[in-house]
Amino acid sequence: MASLRIALVAGEASGDILGAGLMRALKAQHPAVEFIGVGGPLMQAEGLTSYFPMERLAVMGLVEVLGRLRELLARRKKLIATLIAEKPDVFIGIDAPDFTLNIELKLRQAGIKTVHYVSPSVWAWRQKRVLKIREGCDLMLTLFPFEAKFYEEKGVPVRFVGHSLADAIPLEADRSAARAELGLPEGSPLVALMPGSRGGEVGRLGALFLDTAERLRAMRPGVRFVMPCASPERRVQLEELLAGRDLPVTLLDGRSHQALAACDAVLIASGTATLEALLYKRPMVVAYRLAPLTFWILKRMVKSPYISLPNLLAQRLLVPELLQDDATPEALALTLSPLIDGGEEQTTGFDQIHRTLRLDASNQAAEAVLNLIGTPQ
Q1: What mean pLDDT, rounded, does the chain reach?
Q2: Strands of the sheet with 284-288, listed across from one edge
Q3: Does domain 175-357 bear CATH number 1.20.1250.20?
Q4: 41-60 pLDDT, tens digit each
């Protein structure tokens, strides 16, 4: 079997997880393989030689990016030159589109096959980026079917591979076991409050979610709450917001999957966590608030009728979305209350979506990559 050299670049922890799964599947299908590029600890554990630490690419927010722009551009330029010299059989950019799409374009011009794994949100906004993708990318691997449909219409070679979270999360989660693990009582209704993982999100939504919890408690006196904290900083932020409130809230360090498995319903910020709530089949209400000017601009730019992943995946309004001024404690509590012991329409829809996404994503992606470079499996 001919030896392969595969280059991969991931820019953050979620990409490191996807990259490691893909590398494992590639090795299983084609054992004679060498991996080069940039990745985190999980990808390195699978055998990647990382040219520099992945953390150098993980920058959030515009201001932070501007502060590091010279370094990022210099690293990208050097990486392109190194990879052109190394001549890998294929280059795989994992997410991080602002960094990886440019690399793909330059490598493809140099005659190297290129794959992009995880579609940027081009279907929702900045649709012109699809032209750059079509020019720079031999194959787009998408996690969701509606993305693949968009690329097909735009003439980009694409394969929908499914989502590795859908493979990892069981089709039916054990609520009683999760409650026992978290030391939460079996009988009383439990609502998970998930106002986001970033400081700004918790700043905008934390008090709103706790105000909603107080309204909900007035409507349903037995209800309890569980709140996963994404980091020690978020825990401090939430403890400050809880001070002076008489609410039965259990704060958890991380453990968002256990919180979802344990609860009856979820009040949640729009984002990736909504996919996790969907896969755990927990009825949800999605809320979001942005700075007024940002919201005004996005409203004009975004082409999609929905903002939350469950609705994008269902291609209909499956879960309530309360945004900006519509997201009041009263409205959220009234919308959430009937879902605590209802929500069957949502959960039936969630189950169908889970089965659609559960395709053994890493193996599908590996197979697509090997087919692209014409390697017999």
Answers
A1: 92
A2: 249-253, 224-229, 190-194, 265-269, 284-288, 321-323
A3: no
A4: 999 999 999 999 888 886 65
